[in-house]
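Propose amino acids for all 140 sites.
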C-alpha cells in the first residue's frame, strides 16, 4: 500500500495508510460514514483531510451514488493524464450499497464540440441480487 501512495506523490503516514487499507479492504466504494465506523481510531477530520488529499492526487475516485452522498474507492491507475481503471457502478435502491462492476468498462460518450470531460461517474441504479433474493423469499 505504501508503494501505491508514493506513486501518487503521497507520503504514507499511519492515518493515510489506515484509510487506504480500509478503502482497499472494503470491497466496494465506501461513504465517509462507513469509513468513520471502520476507523474508530482516526477522527472524522483526519479521514476527511486524507480523502481530500487522495482526491487531489488522483488516488481515489469520488462517486455520487444518488443515495447518501458520495463514496470513495481507490484508483489503481498510475497515469495522471488518463484513468485506465474506470468502470461502471451499481447503486442498490433498497440497501443503499454501491457495487463496482469492474468487468464493465465505462462506455465512450461523444460530447459536442467545445466540451471537455474531466471525469466520468457511470452509475446504474436498481435492486442488487441480495435484496432481490430477499424479496423473492418473502413472497414464497
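Proposal:
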Amino acid at each position: 500500500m505504501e508503494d501505491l501512495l508514493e506513486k501518487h506523490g503521497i507520503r504514507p503516514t499511519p492515518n493515510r495508510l489506515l484509510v487506504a487499507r480500509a478503502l482497499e479492504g472494503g470491497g466496494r466504494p465506501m461513504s465517509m460514514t462507513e469509513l468513520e465506523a471502520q476507523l474508530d481510531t482516526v477522527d472524522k477530520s483526519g479521514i476527511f483531510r486524507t480523502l481530500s488529499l487522495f482526491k487531489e492526487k488522483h488516488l481515489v475516485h469520488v462517486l455520487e451514488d444518488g443515495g447518501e452522498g458520495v463514496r470513495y474507492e481507490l484508483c489503481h491507475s498510475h497515469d495522471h493524464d488518463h484513468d485506465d481503471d474506470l468502470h461502471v457502478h451499481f447503486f442498490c435502491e433498497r440497501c443503499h450499497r454501491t457495487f463496482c462492476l469492474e468487468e464493465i468498462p465505462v462506455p465512450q460518450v461523444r460530447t459536442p464540440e467545445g466540451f471537455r470531460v474531466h471525469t466520468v461517474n457511470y452509475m446504474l441504479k436498481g435492486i442488487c441480487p441480495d435484496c432481490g433474493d430477499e424479496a423473492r423469499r418473502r413472497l414464497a
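The beta strands are 30-31, 60-64, 70-74, 87-92, 98-105, 123-126. Residues 30 and 71 are 5 Å apart (CA to CA).
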